Please model this.
Amino acid sequence: MALSSTTLPATTPTAPPPFTERRYVLTFIFVVSLFMLWGLGVTMGDILNKHFQQVLHVSKANSAYVQVATFGAYFVMGLPAGWFMKRFGYQKGVILGLGLYALGAFLMVPAANAASFTFLLVALFVLACGLGTLEAVAHPFLDGLGDPASSDRRITFSHAINGIGAVSGPLIGGYFVLRGTHAAGDLSSVKVLYTIIGTVVGAIGLAFAFVKVPPLNAEHTPGTATSETSDAPTDLGADKSLFQHKHFVWACVAQLFNTAAQGGTWAYFINYGTDYMGLQPGPAIQGFWQVGTLFSRTVSLAPGLPHLANDVAAYFFSLSLVGMMIGRFLGTYLMQFIAPNRLLAFVALANICMCLIVAQHWGWVSFAALIALNFFFSVMFPIIYSLGLKDLGRHKQLASSFIVMGVVGAALFPRFVMGPVADVSVAHAYYLPIICYVVVFLYGAIFYKVAGSEPKAR
Model:
């Protein structure tokens, strides 16, 4: 008896979408370089926190006005940057951001000459207006430099490059600003450093003005993205207003709390090292302490003092940012196999555990947990950003601006929530970011979903 055969359709594994396209490579390189520049600008502020405490004699809580000026500028510039790039395009938006960045850096010179904390904050605010503009422009710009399905990877990879700038900030600042002793009002190192930064940033802005940017598809091109007749395949619910997209609204909320936790972690990192590293812990962790003490003698303690020197604490801060950079490269790879929202939920839970350990000030055990915080929250910002921009079509430029405005959390939380607690106990202030990580976890677990679109199983 002959067996009948049925022809079944062949199944082939779906290849991951390409990272970008050849025509976008040069533009992609320039845009990614912007991430490195604002990483440098942001973490340099955390070095200034400690320096202003010493040289200008401001309290821990008041020194956090550096974060208020920096991240408050993100909030102020969010919508203007969105309107500007919608009207004039991404390239001119980048040039505007770099111009404000360079101007703010140069304003640091007369501010340092005046030894005025208020004037320094104004200069930092102008500089950070440039950072906020760059961030608002760069994310939707990257989103359009290739297949929308690979935007998570492009954005997370770019934030890994941002880590290079973030690592450089404490290293450069520790060397130029915190090394050695400084007389009251001596801000000469700040003047030299920011003159160099302003010159480099201005030169990059000039170079980018001559780059020919290839046309992006209609969904990402300012001026055409607003068309109601756009047939871009990812413009789901194009008839909805922006705030009817619940996944976007929750992305703004999650980014607010995420940046609050990140800003607070960075603002008091050096204070944690100088306040606790070297103080004797309880008997429960004597073994860990002895190993940590041996290591601390290797890297150098402040001469004659029972804690880390300012510049050494800054170098540990830089080490923690190396962990953040590694986390982003690893996250870029893992998102080929793990859904971004699941990765986000996992790292949020991990950081809840890290904060609990940091708050106990168990010597090197807690300090290691403080360093590990950066590794775990490395992918939070880019994942929240990319999930929030999914399937927004014509709304992408404005949505990017609103998500950038969520960075105001890093302005408010260090000064007004963690600051008063840190003046009493820096360690106990690290209980507070736990609230933020709970919100991020809920976004990754529940609220990331795009209405009318089923998430892909992985």
User: Anything to note?
Assistant: The domain at 22-213+241-447 is CATH 1.20.1250.20 (Growth Hormone; Chain: A;).
